[in-house]
Write a structure and sequence with these properties.
Largest sheet: 8 strands, mixed
Number of domains: 4
Helix content: 25-40%
Structural class: alpha+beta
CATH topology of the largest domain: Dipeptide-binding Protein, domain 3
Oligomer: single chain
Length: 582
């Protein structure tokens, strides 16, 4: 940037000399601009160019909606989780996906698990001379406070989401029992109720926050952490972060990340083409595949089909009620209008018979789509397939199963001698898509003669009923990670086994996942878990999102975590020109 400024000054002086130096001949033409105006113009030119230099190091992500807050203990949406994990905060550890224990130290400079294979105790050393984004030093008491937050009885759902259900105690100690060296009060001891093979992975959720700031209100709107970037703005239309450390000489380093709310997908695509956005989180279904076939797309962008690990589920109570029978659950499943639910979302559901994320991001061959032109269709060049409309056939098969079970149709209602087939649908009453999906499910069941009253309440109340087993059927959304320990939800002894499922083969597969030593073994265990869940059917996946993600080819070192780009490792190649668009 210094060279830009120097060149701007030389240009200004040269122009000034052209009007004030040199020939004494008088001109009868228009008076030339004064020297001070020329200098001002050059300075303005410098500011433009300086802004362009900054743009070279700014990554802009166009999202439909912005995270409302960035509290690491809150219920974060996927982009909020990426900002929390990658940029704003540091956990005691950071998740990795190569080999056991699937984690490495992050804020802590070392962690000791005891015993290593089945730890009930973890000791993490607190480094010295670390500071928060506001300049205040990180103390051992801050680290202890950050871990103690997870013990709060109000954090039950947060512990469940992050695999910390068995967390029992945290304290500051002088050293682990196995360590000879002492560092008084600078080791954090984390104790669990029972052996936790994935303890180090779970501790990635324990982000370090300042005790004084977190105790105040609205921390999620003004977050302070120790990560590589700090939040400098959280507005209605953008979240802006800047790098904490001084800029390096790396021409590809990203110094600023901006999440920009662009709910109008056509406008977002236009901004992408103008170079104002480098990552577009989801193309509108109406633009797929037509816009991907346009000239120049393959040269400037990469596109991926991603399937974030979020599942809209129907839960069955397997303890009591007619839906506890496997054949009736089969009939209920077949009568669900899946094609109509896909239409509500606009994109086809990812193929998922169980809430297990088994699909890695799939690149789309844009060059092939460009060659196909107007002949491009869903299902080609890496695009997802459009599922056939089998709703009517599913309803017919459901009716046959109900007939087989002795539920005969009388004046539009399935009955036995004991009365009508009736099952209550419980959900949290969410408006919008949730309400549409609930309405479609109820309509599908009513069409085959099932009486379906519904009950809605706040999520906390609904969750309480689920925990007590006081429900027939329930709708909810389960947000997980690509690699997730599902034992709390589906193991016979799981802390959140809401459906009451108890299956030895499923338990074995869930335990195998926890014992896996590398990524391949985890994938194999996930396949076994998904297969058995589909057979036993404690849940039905109503919808698993499929998203077309668009990325500028300026973005380098692209790596996906939970089907979104990992933000802290990205680099930006320099732009081809200084044209100002941003």
């Amino acid at each position: 940037m210094g060279r830009v400024l120097r060149n701007a000054r030389i240009a200004a002086l040269a122009l000034a000399c052209g009007s004030a130096c040199g020939s004494d001949e008088r001109s009868d033409g228009p008076t030339r601009e004064p020297v001070d105006a020329l200098i001002a113009a050059a300075a303005n030119d410098y500011q433009v160019r300086a802004g362009l230099v900054e743009r070279e190091h700014t990554l802009v992500v166009g999202t439909r909606n912005l995270p409302r807050e960035l509290d690491p203990l809150g219920a974060l949406d996927p982009w909020g989780q990426r900002l929390v994990d990658d940029l704003v905060f540091e956990g005691l550890t950071r998740r990795t996906d190569a080999r056991f224990p699937f984690a490495e130290p992050q804020f802590a400079d070392t962690c000791v698990a005891s015993p290593p294979a089945d730890p009930r105790d973890v000791y993490c050393h607190i480094p010295a001379d670390r500071r928060f984004h506001d300049g205040n030093p990180v103390t051992a008491e801050d680290v202890l406070y950050s871990a103690q937050l997870w013990l709060d009885t109000r954090r039950e759902l947060a512990r469940l989401r992050h695999g910390l259900t068995d967390l029992r105690k945290v304290e500051l100690v002088d050293r682990p029992p196995s360590e000879g060296r002492r560092d008084p009060g600078q080791w954090l001891h984390v104790a669990f109720e029972r052996p936790m093979p994935l303890a180090l992975e779970a501790l990635a959720a324990v982000k370090i926050v300042p005790r004084s700031a977190y105790r105040g209100r609205n921390f999620g709107r003004a977050p302070v952490g120790t990560g590589p970037m700090r939040v400098v703005a959280m507005d209605a239309d953008r979240i802006e972060l800047e790098r904490v450390a001084a800029a390096s000489d790396d021409e590809r380093e990203i110094r600023r990340v901006v999440l920009r709310a662009t709910p109008d997908r056509a406008e977002a695509l236009s901004r992408m083409r103008r170079g104002e956005i480098q990552v577009l989180d989801a193309m509108a279904p109406v633009h797929v595949p037509e816009e991907l076939t346009k000239p120049g797309m393959a040269a400037r962008f990469s596109a991926y089909v991603v399937t974030p690990p979020r599942f809209d589920l129907l839960l069955y109570n397997l303890r009591q009620g007619p839906q506890a029978g496997p054949r009736l659950r089969d009939a209920l499943d077949r009568a669900i209008p899946f094609h109509a639910i896909d239409a509500v979302h606009g994109m086809p559901s990812a193929p998922a018979a169980a809430p297990v994320d088994r699909l890695d991001p799939q690149p789309i061959d844009l060059a092939r789509l460009a060659q196909a032109g107007v002949s491009a269709t869903w299902g080609m060049a890496g695009l997802p397939e459009l599922a056939p409309d089998e709703d009517a056939e599913g309803a017919r098969q459901a009716g046959l199963i109900l007939d087989e079970l002795g539920w005969t149709m009388e004046r539009g209602t399935r009955r036995r001698a004991t009365g009508p087939l009736r099952t209550v649908l419980l959900w949290d009453g969410e408006r919008g898509t949730g309400a549409e999906v609930a309405g479609l499910v109820r309509r599908g069941w009513r069409d085959v003669g099932i009486t379906v009253p519904h009950a809605t309440a706040s999520w906390s109340y609904v969750f309480g009923l689920l925990r007590k087993g006081e429900f027939d059927l329930a709708l909810l959304r389960l947000g997980t990670r690509t690699f997730e320990d599902l034992r709390p939800y589906f193991h016979s002894r799981g802390a959140a086994n809401l459906t009451g499922v108890s299956d030895g083969e499923l338990d074995t597969a869930l335990d195998a996942y926890v014992r896996a030593q590398d990524r391949a073994a985890r994938r194999h265990a996930q396949d076994q878990i998904a297969r058995r869940l589909a057979d036993v059917r404690p849940v039905t996946v109503l919808y698993a999102p499929t998203i077309v993600l668009l990325v500028s080819k300026r973005v380098e070192r692209l790596e996906f975590v939970d089907d979104l780009p990992r933000l802290d490792r990205l680099r930006l190649a320099p732009e081809a020109s200084w044209t100002l668009h941003y």
